[in-house]
TrEMBL record:
<protein>
    <recommendedName>
        <fullName>Molybdate metabolism regulator</fullName>
    </recommendedName>
</protein>
<dbReference type="InterPro" id="IPR050458">
    <property type="entry name" value="LolB"/>
</dbReference>
């Protein structure tokens, strides 16, 4: 029992390897079977292990509907076993199957790909107490057409795509492997069930290597889902033009082409709006293929049925498009006859080696803004006393929970951070009485063996120890993605300690909440941490930097002004609010080697010039005490619209068909 409890918390593949090496494959098979009867709880205490009764038919239990790496490793060992040993192990697994919880049975079928009939039979199994998401994994093994059609309704686990864990889903490290195994074992019969995953990187990268019309047909149907899918079609039609032409002819011959693979409720609604663009794209691609390789149509014709043949013949018999005489340019505008970007740029910025100017950072808050932030409910709740006083009045575990420690992020975001837990405590205990882990945290704070060490570190001001405990917490593998530091409470620390904490949080790329209040308290001293936060989370942090004028912010803001339409207004606001910092930081970049930085800098300076800051720009330029700086800069700022284009025009992408 102690060993099984250990295995319940440790799904390491190496652990199964060691068991096979020490005790043999049959014993390892029995361990995997026994492990199916342990349900991991949602509680934060790792010492709590719950045994699941054999007659239970519901899927309660942490990670009950996703694979376990320890179990799945048995599939590899069985594939290498002698036939007699494999048969004995398979018999053990099959005999144990009826007693295993229904939501775990698909993973036994996954271990035995040589027995697809098990997966086919499990497809019809119903489990009224759960959504039975684990049934999607049967797609890797099932081979009965009727069973495969039933599995089309299961797609939420996205089993053929590798991904890391997130707030909404478990990790999957076997998506690519599952897709490759399915294609290897079932060949073209696997293509239809992979259609709804074909726009994803792992599945799409495998399909693009298979030369068959059925494959490119699938890729064509998902081509408009994202840019990589479009690029895969471009790559495919270059490598396998015959299959591409055949698939295009078949699609264009259909009176009603199928919707994109995916959720039918969503995709069927989108079809009418998509079909015109899809049809135009398919026709353009077919014309491009036939024009570039005229012999293709004749070579492919023998593979096709009557209607697709008619499509190809209609394109072959169509009169050639009239050729536009490009020699007579008398009636064309000059910009079309001789576009400026087709020739060498007339005026480029001179190279000047300018040392960066130092300018004191500044902070500015709108009147009443700091008072408004201090009056918010969380700010008032957490600022009533210092953190040390708070630890004396409440327990250390409660204060650690308020800081953000603990597995229950839902509880933290919805009740602790807004300061509502005290008022809602009794009702929450009644609501979650069946969830002992959450009840324990509601009553007593962070429930962890590490709580005492963390409390000592907090009392002694040992920031590094607190950060390490946060990162090394064993009770949820998803902590780094979703746990949040409470800056409302950190702001009550001694100033130097709070600033060091803020800097380390951002160096570690942790998440946080209450940053606007925190910055309103600590002001310019918090700027180094804010710069790090902006580099890691620009979208969320951008509104905060409007209050801070610093030369270090000018270039990142200039890049936003140049590239990102969604936050362009905020970038414009910052540039115009801090013109001197913008000019001091960006003028030297304009005179460096042409690059993204120099182009972004020039566009930001041109905005200042157009908005009436010419005198300021001249004043800043003169600080280098060189007569050539302002004259060169003024020429660049006064360029006409036709002269403003990148020094190098990038090559058009492969999927562009002019």
């Amino acid at each position: 029992m102690a060993a099984l409890a250990c295995i319940a918390q440790n799904d390491s593949q190496q652990l199964l390897d060691e068991i096979v090496q020490q005790e043999g494959l049959e014993y390892a098979t029995e361990v995997v079977i026994a492990r199916q009867f342990i349900a991991r709880c949602y509680e934060s205490d790792p010492l709590v292990v719950t045994l699941q009764y054999q007659d239970e038919d519901y899927g309660y239990g942490y990670r009950s509907e996703t694979y376990n790496e320890f179990d799945l490793r048995l599939r590899k060992h069985l594939s290498l076993a002698e036939e007699s040993c494999w048969q004995r192990c398979a018999d053990k697994l099959i005999a144990a199957l009826p007693g295993i919880t229904k939501v775990r049975r698909p993973f036994i079928a996954l271990i035995l790909p040589e027995k697809p009939e098990i997966a086919n039979e499990l497809v019809g199994l119903e489990c009224p107490r759960t959504h039975f998401h684990s049934k999607e994994w049967l797609k890797v093994v099932a081979n009965d057409p009727t069973a495969v059609r039933k599995l089309e309704h299961y797609w939420s686990q996205d089993i053929f795509s590798d991904r890391e864990a997130s707030y909404m889903s478990h990790e999957n490290h076997f998506g690519y492997a599952a897709c490759a195994a399915l294609l290897r074992e079932q060949g073209l019969a696997a293509i239809p069930r992979l259609a709804m995953y074909a726009h994803k990187e792992d599945c799409g990268s495998l399909l693009v290597q298979i030369n068959h019309p059925q494959v490119i047909r699938t890729l064509l149907l998902v081509a408009d889902k994202n840019k990589p899918s479009l690029q895969r079609v471009a790559k495919y039609h270059k490598n396998f033009p015959h299959a591409t032409l055949a698939a295009l002819a078949e699609l264009l011959a259909l009176k009603e082409p199928p919707a994109r693979p995916g959720n039918p409720i969503i995709e069927d609604k989108k079809l009418p709006a998509q079909q015109k663009a899809r049809d135009e794209y398919w026709r353009t691609l077919l014309q491009t293929l036939m024009a570039s390789q005229p012999q293709l149509a004749e070579e492919v014709m023998q593979w096709l049925s009557t209607q697709p043949q008619s499509v190809l013949k209609s394109y072959l018999s169509a009169p050639p498009k009239p050729v536009i005489d490009g020699t007579d340019n008398s009636n064309l505008p000059e910009i079309l006859v001789s576009p400026p970007w087709r020739s060498k740029k007339k005026m480029t910025a001179p190279r000047l080696d300018l040392a960066p100017l130092e300018l004191t950072p500044q902070v500015y808050w709108q009147p009443g803004e700091q008072e408004r932030l201090a009056a918010t409910e969380p700010a008032r709740y957490f600022s009533t006393e210092s953190l040390a006083q708070r630890m004396e009045q409440k327990s250390g575990r409660v204060v650690l929970q308020e800081l953000g420690f603990g597995d229950d992020v839902w509880l933290f975001l919805n009740y602790i951070l807004p300061g509502k837990l005290d008022a809602a405590r009794n009702s929450l205990i009644v609501q979650w009485h069946y969830y002992q882990g959450r009840v324990e945290e509601i009553l007593n704070g962070w429930n962890s063996p590490e709580a005492q060490l963390a409390e000592q570190a907090l009392r002694s001001g040992h920031i590094e120890a607190l950060i390490n405990i946060w990162e090394n917490d064993n009770y949820s593998r998803y902590r780094p993605e979703k746990s949040v530091w409470n800056l409302y409470l950190l702001a009550q620390l001694p100033r130097e300690m709070a600033l060091t904490f803020w800097l380390r949080i951002n160096e570690k790329k942790h998440l946080f909440a209450g940053e606007d209040y925190f910055l309103s308290i600590l002001g310019l001293d918090a700027l180094p941490g804010l710069l790090l936060a902006f580099s890691h989370r620009p979208k969320e942090t951008f509104p905060l930097i409007l209050n801070f004028g610093a030369t270090e912010l000018a270039l990142p803001v200039a890049h936003v002004w140049r590239r990102f339409a969604a936050q362009r207004d905020l970038a414009r606001q910052w540039i115009l609010q801090w013109p001197e910092h913008t000019a001091s930081a960006l003028i030297p970049l304009v005179f460096t080697k042409p690059s993204d930085n120099s182009e972004a800098a020039l566009l930001a300076l041109r905005l200042l010039y157009e908005q009436g800051h010419g005198e300021l720009l001249q004043t800043v330029a003169n600080r280098w005490q060189r007569t050539d700086v302002w004259s060169a800069l003024e020429q660049l700022l006064k360029q006409g619209p036709m002269d403003i284009y990148p020094a190098r025009i990038p090559k058009a992408p492969d999927f562009w068909h002019p």
